[in-house]
Design goal:
With 88 residues, the chain is α+β, with helices and mostly antiparallel strands. 23% of the residues lie in helices and 40% in strands. The chain is built from two helices and five strands, in the order βαββαββ.
Length: 88
């Protein structure tokens, strides 16, 4: 059975990733900036990972409907992680 416990935001530019990191941290959210996973196609090498419980707050803090950001759900299957793009 797959275990879903996180989301990843992928960006079109480093500027957008850094700006989102700043806004999310100011909102008190626990996030992790990490290299964009290979399975995710994005122009930027930085992504932001966060727990699935924070999805509504993340949507409040940043405008995830912008074309500069995409949302992915992480599914862990044994030793492999699969990323599925989510509708915004």
């Amino acid at each position: 059975m797959p275990l879903t416990d996180f989301f990843v935001l992928a960006f079109d530019s480093t500027h957008h990733a850094i700006q989102a990191e700043k806004f999310l941290k100011e909102a008190g959210l626990k996030i992790e900036v990490l290299p964009t996973p290979r399975d995710i196609t994005a122009s930027c090498g930085l992504s932001i990972k966060f727990h699935m419980d924070h999805i509504e707050k993340v949507k409040e803090v940043i405008d995830v409907s912008q074309p500069t950001v995409k949302l992915y759900r992480g599914l862990r299957l044994e030793r492999k992680t699969i990323y599925l793009e989510e509708e915004l």
